[in-house]
Amino acid sequence: MTDRMNKETLQAKTEGAVIKGVGGLYTVLADGGERYQCRARGKFRHENISPLVGDRVTVCGDTEEKEGYVIDSILPRKNSLVRPAVANLTHLFAVVPSAKPKPDLLTVDKIVSVAESKGIEPVIIVNKSDIDPDEAERIRAIYDGAGFTCLLLSAATGDGCDALLEYFEESSRDSVVTAALAGASAAGKSTLMKRLFPSLDLKTGEVSRKTERGRHTTRHVELFPVPGNGRCFIADTPGFSLLDFAKYNYCELNLLASTFREFSDCLGKCRYTKCTHTKEEGCAVLEKLASGGISKERHDNYIALYNEIKSIPEWKRKKMTSNDG
Question: Of 107, 130, 141, 302, which sees the most CB atoms within 10 A?
Fold first, then answer.
């Protein structure tokens, strides 16, 4: 289809999803399958709004200003993350290695809490499960017990990746899936993306022998359709760091307990109305913990997150909330 023909078909607005954005130029995948390179109308700049990858938008030809195609409107978002800048996620995959580096479940629980607070389904992926199978199974037991889907695989060898593809297939039967991978450096996010999308030229970071930290250099967010599944997209992102989560995507303090699924049958049953579920007598969460119904490691991480969020001054929390699209 020529550029002229495209403009003629786009005199009327058409809907689609932003799948890439670099330097003010956005790639929109229209519902009919066409792709358009667009700029955003100037009105968004005046309103201090920018389209995000994952946004549902309307596109039309901009023959008057002779700039080709433009994003004319951004449809209401179901959710958004600040870093990476992505909207309308349905799933967030928390990638954690079983070893090399040592698994950091506090990072996993930050990711899970952020996802839960924004209405995104969290899924735990234990990568490098072949390196330490016992640790991989221990992690799976924790998150299975908490009510989350947990998949064990090795992105390097491909073992277990079929189960991930089956999960995508099952999840996308009734609606479009838009997912992102999150995790600490060297968890294997880029290796997993390369495994899922062999034709992509993605840079994977080595792990420093001294620091065991990765050197991932993704520079922009982009959505890629899962091969063989036109209803499922995965975002290649700059990654999630502890700093990013603390600064940009924190979970509000009053929502934190509700993001721990294994607490759900306890909430509202504590002796004190404003129970923090950290140390109070008559706390239903602590009683369930004592009986073995809640993982001690998960509860320890809940306390760590609670104290971390509480340490942020209230004025700063409000500012962060106002900046979270």
Answer: 302
